[in-house]
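Propose amino acids for all 89 sites.
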């Protein structure tokens, strides 16, 4: 089942976000990601992604994202929900 991942990261800068993004997408988009949007918030940075499954995200996290986040000194945990419906324009 497809899931949405939301990572709302207070204190994270655009430079930290871009460092992680470039590191984890150097070989192209991760397998299993359907969409990725990100941008600044009043307190930091927010990333919202849609994944084919929680397992696909977990593989990506353990294979690439976890190390990239550590190198960029990012903490915090994303939250997830199963997607019941979606709309695209």
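Proposal:
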């Amino acid at each position: 089942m497809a899931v949405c991942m939301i990572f709302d990261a207070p204190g994270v800068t655009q430079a930290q976000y871009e460092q992680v993004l470039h590191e984890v997408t150097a070989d192209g988009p991760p397998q299993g990601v359907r969409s990725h949007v990100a941008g600044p918030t009043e307190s930091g940075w927010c990333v919202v992604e849609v994944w084919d499954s929680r397992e696909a995200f977990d593989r990506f996290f353990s294979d690439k994202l976890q190390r990239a986040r550590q190198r960029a000194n990012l903490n915090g945990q994303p939250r997830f929900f199963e997607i019941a419906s979606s709309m695209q324009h």
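The domain at 3-82 is CATH 3.30.70.100 (Alpha-Beta Plaits). The helical segments are 14-24, 54-71.
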